[in-house]
């Protein structure tokens, strides 16, 4: 026995021995070690005694014997658990598949969250890296690039930054290496990679001499481009790439670590040259700006200095800076905005609900299975088995179910992530960043260890409380009622959780349908689209490519019309500040959207022209600058008057006045806009663009016209790339693929929750009917009608559903409040959704209750009484 004089065995040693030693040897071994430990404390002190005790615990056969003995226990329990599960293949399959689906979605969502929130950034000391962003206070939009003028006036020369740099993303046309292709390009300031601590994998980075006037055109290529397009040629340095018709010498290869997030689509890196004209245009905001903190500086100090310098710039340029703020943010805050955090929070909530429902469902199945095995457990208890001997095999069954489900879940999650990545690869990097790495596997392993405690161990403890006298004879009515109440409570919890998931999924589905239907102002069927980037090096006022190409397309048999547009509907438009002639001071300039088109665009898209005329070939570069405005713009700028003949201009006072020649119907060209915004069109000849999209109205299936359109382009210029040749519907779906993927996840989880809740209801009512078979037989024998018995069963099930639904509606109301930023065109607490979901859940519950209720009315009274 341990004493309190400091000479007894230490507590950790006694606990370890108790755990490792078999009961029959425990007291003897502990007594011997206690006596030896006391002697050494008296003779040599506690330090020497503790060292002796550690050696004895390693050398003596007692603990080793205990470990071997317990290992034998574990092997026996596992063998018993495997045999028991194989004897019930239906139960095992359902339990494993249920948990595997829950594990799969949880692993997939954690993979996405890990890729976005916990990714190991490829930067040296990322905690010292900052980004400088703009924020539009008028629209509450955050994380926007800044202008080159802002970079010069605010960022360059920051005292709290050791080094600053900027990047501008765009596209270039690569020729001379097979078919012409469009490459993702990033232009960066000299030493940009040094800020992040990323030297070139091979060769060198950019220096100040690379942006000097007359400097040789040089380029860095990404590791992915070097691998895919150049076969990892060791002699790649010094080779020439022809970009936009101009040769560029490769001087370095960017390491693969740079291919993360939005930079994963960058193939080529160019030196960023900032000229006087670019500095003057403060409305052209295209620079991603980064900085490394100076030694000893903090983000708060950097933000304070940025704010002070921006205040001076805003005072000097009030028009360009109106409603605009510049701020510094850390790398983590820059990578994850509030919208992404909200989406991941809701996804985490829903998958947590799915996991809980799956665990509750499995717990219910284990409780029912344990109740059926009560006689078996009672026999084991009567033969002398202790509670631990009864509990261990039950816990082992739960652990085996969980581990098997986790293994299948990891495989399923990898397939799910692969599908999501393929669906959204061309639009967003959110799903492509997800990886099933060691962190994700650790999370799955943690779930595998905790899940048995949640859904297996507690039911096992409940079932292991056997009473041999009762179970070998007859289970008490009170015990059966307690078990029924437990299972009914679990089903009510399932219903409540399913209600939350269904409401969230229903609101998102309604929002998605609204987004899909809101662009009814034009006809999308029968339209083929293609993306064209005209190399800027060969684009000038005399370039006749677009005109000749469009003539070729319109001459194709079956093409009823074709046009070019700077941005397809739904992809947004350029935001411009305009000054209206005769309205007032320039400080009151309004913000409107601009789209550049060729003559015939409104006709091809079947957008109604309400007043005036559309563009024609006379609206060329030498013609009077003209515009066609939307109804919303006309009513906003000239309410109660005609817009025809009115004039406005964009940019500074040197910009030409645009004369309104027509008014067109409104088009909500962004999926996140609920109403039409002021919007105007300009002729492409008067506002040239390098990147345009083709829209052609064709007969038959649009996809069948892909090759003729490509030939029409290459017949004019064989070095001109043509990409994304798809129908307009497919292009719009691709643009919304991320939203649809996220919505699809929510709907998938909600349907899974509904199925699991229905299965739980069915299981509980079926078990209740089976346990009450004698009662129903007596009632039927005494003259009770089948309808009355059926009503009894239905009341029991519906009562549980109604109680769970009431709790679930409260949770759904709270969850809906988190969806403000995800829902378009409606309230997140949509009354229709909140009304229909309980009805759907009630109908499913009725179906799940109906089969057991019918079974109760088909009980043979004579047979039931004989069994009783």
Write up what this structure looks like.
It is a single chain. With 868 residues, the chain is α+β, with helices and mostly antiparallel strands. It has 27 helices and 23 strands. The strands form three sheets. It has a six-stranded mixed barrel. Strands 15-16-21-18-20-19 form a six-stranded mixed barrel. It has a four-stranded antiparallel beta sheet with strand order 14-22-13-23. Helix 25 (786-816) packs antiparallel against helix 26 (831-857). The chain is globular. The model is unreliable at 472-479 (pLDDT under 50).
Sheet of most strands: 6 strands, mixed, barrel
Question: Helix coverage percent of residues?
Answer: 40-55%
Overall structural class, as computed from helix and strand content, comes to alpha+beta
Query: If you average the pLDDT, what whole number results?
Result: 76
- Kindly estimate the percentage of residues that lie in beta strands according to DSSP: 15-25%
How far is it from the N-terminal to the C-terminal residue, by CA? Answer: 55 Å
List low-confidence stretches. Answer: 472-479
Summarize the structure.
The chain has 868 residues and is an alpha+beta fold. The chain has a 6-stranded mixed beta barrel with strand order 4-5-10-7-9-8. Strand 4 (161-175) and strand 5 form a beta hairpin.
Summarize this structure as a short list of keywords or feature phrases.
6-stranded mixed beta barrel; single chain; 17% strand; 27 helices; 868 residues
